[in-house]
User: Fold these one by one.
Assistant:
Number 1:
Amino acid sequence: MNSMLEQLRNGLVVSCQALEHEPLHGAHIMARMARAAEEGGAVGIRANGAEDVAAIKQVTGLPVIGLVKQNYADSEVFITPTWKEVEQLITAGADIVALDATRRRRPNGETLESLITAMKEQGQPIMADVSTMEEAEYAESLGVDCVSTTLSGYTSYSPQNAGPDYELVKRAVKQLSIPVIAEGRIWSPKEAVKMLELGAYAVVVGTAITRPQEITKRYVAELSVFRLAKEKV
């Protein structure tokens, strides 16, 4: 097993990401966020964009899972859609490259199969982001190093759960022989622990730790419910 992947076992990977329209966007900010996560005990970082990956590698000693979120007009695939993004991440030094491993049509006529083959030829460890059990099994058959449940609920045909997809993790752990990483809508430490109890190799948490605007919204929503209830009394 890849030594970098081994470092993630039974631990917390913190996803340090901010898109261009978000207030914390910027490689220097995400590098500091990653440093804070490392000080808090994270075993790895998941980062978006070659610039962020390179900046984080400079300030932490943690394995960095790199991806590139990129929109293409001719495809729904958003996470590391093409070889162009893969090359950017390899150049930036990503220890593991994560990519959308659904079987949806990719941009420029590229395919999941061709990308994984090319990455394996370069010895690049691969994390397959999936939304269903069928996708997880297919990704394993292509030779990826691990699968992550990142996309469950984010494809039109996967379960639209409000919370974590425990069932997918449970099934994947039983049916796959490669590590299964739990990711997606994990908001509390108890939910993270439950994923490990189900057999997840590691847990990825992003929004609940590194997106203060979304954390704030949750508090504000709860307080609004309280105010409305009080006004009715």
Number 2:
Amino acid sequence: MDAPLHICQATPADAGIISRIVERSIRVGCALDHRNDAKIVAAWTHNKTAEHIHTWLTDPRLYLNIALLQDKPIGVAMAASSGQIAFCYVQPEWFRRGAGQALIRDLEAWLLNQHLHQARLNSTRTSEAFYRHLGYRASAETFSVAGLQAIPMHKALAPPS
């Protein structure tokens, strides 16, 4: 990326744009997982509406961040105070350009601030190599949910040296 990427905590005013980023990332970027099956896409996106996201943004147990490039939102991620990373979605035209990595690193810093030393997530097949690149390892057998394969992964978190 030529311009600097800025990662910040999302606000309730961001709910609409977050919903659009998530839905587009799923529909376009995750076709390997949903195979353009309308039922699977609907099941995956049903709780990604602006209303649901607004609720998440006001829950103190959750942290949503947003990646901005020249003030344009290009990605979003969410973690829970339990140590679970719920998701990381980037606009498809910004895949493999550092936004997802920056979002996850910010979530990991937030989890460390919550005094947690391990992050957990369920990866899709599309995202598995991305998470492995960031140091996540499979922690259990793959399972199926709503027509998707989920790969449980974890990573030990260490404070920056």
Number 3:
Amino acid sequence: MAGSPEVAIVGAGLAGCLLACYLAARGHQVTLYERRPDPRAEGAERGRSINLALSERGLNALRGIGLDDQVMAEALPMRGRMIHPVHGRLDLQLYSSDGLRSINSISRARLNAALLDAAAERAGIRFAHRLTGLDPATGTMVFEGGHTAKADVVLGADGAGSAVRAALAEGAGLRERTDFLQHGYKELTIPARDGAFALDPGALHIWPRGTSMMIALPNPDRSFTCTLFWPEEAFAALDTPQAVERHFAAVYPDAVPLIPDLVDDYENNPVGKLGTVHARPWQAGGRVGLIGDAAHAIVPFYGQGANCAFEDVVVLNQVLDESGDDWTAALPLFERRRFEDTSAIAAMALENFVEMRDKVASPVYRLARHAEHALQGALPGLYLSRYELISFSNVPYARVRRRVRRQHQALAAAVAAAGIAALGVAAARRIRGR
């Protein structure tokens, strides 16, 4: 493509706005198309805000447009998981071996507003433009109401239910599958109490209950956003206010006094779906491409959905550098560069769901975490936990998975060797004792 092509980004959510800022900085003329009205005027949809856990990958992307300090001014650092058993004491499990590193609770709506402001300074934004048709060969877009537009490059940043991905599936041979969990999610709110946080704001709170869990993340207004992750049939089973109250009193007894609007929230906030999107190829002809959840939506249990999408933007920017802004080369290279990593984090997010709901309350799990942190102290820079590599570094996800697998193999071999040595010493002592 000669000159600086015009780029259309479908979806003005987190990834789309960040991408617009990066591409505008490269000199591209960028227009964002968003199906919703401007959320800064309309407000967030009730019960759909799932707080984000912003970590190093996301912060690294925000640094690229100078937005990290502004975003972090409203962030609340969480240095560990606070486990709430049905009965007994709370248990704080630190994320890093030194206890100093944190992930950051961020309001999705506030972060989106900050990114919209940044994008509006650099690009055009067209709200209330729902994409209904796309010709991948020409870049011609059709919007609800019959309006059309055309761009040299069209990028779908329009989320897990991407209309751009659907167009590629219909007209460009994309194959897609969404693996839905048999769990849904619903939000509740723990308000501030007498102007203060009702729980420790320096932790991500988890109520692990085997096949289900509740989590809570702090907000700048001193409230907490709670999210229930339950089997779908469990939501339907609580069909009266009395059933809701009885269930929470039995399963989350310490939380009940903190949620004065429990029944109202439960009955009126929607149940959302959770799933992993598998799609390929992510692009067609070097003209139309997918990024973020539109290409590879994942479940939220590693706190990496937005972080991964932001990292997509950084990688796309890098491959544009490498390809000299040749989109026909950059889009296929971007897919090759990111596919293994996004597949790896999708798998690890599912694994972490099991860990969060089933394992974190186990004494065996706690002992393993203490041992892992001790190893990190004894072998600085050589042994790092999977959580720290995911949350506090920019090491590619697939490389993290391979490294952790090698660490565990080496550890198992060392334990086995130590056991054999111990047996040898015991045998020698017995022989000498004869």
Number 4:
Amino acid sequence: MELADEIRINAPKDVVYAALNDPEVLKQCIPGCEELIKHSDTQLEAKVVLKVGPVKAKFSGDVELNTEGAPDAFSLSGQGNGGAAGHAKGGADVTLTADGDETILRYEAKAVIGGKLAQLGSRLIQSTAKKLAAKFFKSFATVVSEESVS
């Protein structure tokens, strides 16, 4: 499964990059996130509850950041386990481009799922993933824009 999109955020690039590295901001924005622990500058652990069609699962997972191109670009990869519901692993490449006082965030993500979730059908999984990504980035843009103003 692949996802790609771009979003315009009403905040300077350095503010957006800092927010993408702030566990408190991310926890507010990740749909279903119950816990987000930063173990180091490049390693995070998350606990997320998601409902995909008839399957509801609590995922526990690890995310690793690669910040070599930061603050213009970075990538992340991770994997999560939802017990009987299944598992997922994937990654994303993110680029940040300054546009005046705003920032354009572009991402390309890939994910592979297994278990009960994989049996639901690719259209349901794809549409749910798009909705979750859109919800995250809309929330993220709102939080970052508000923090940038205050």
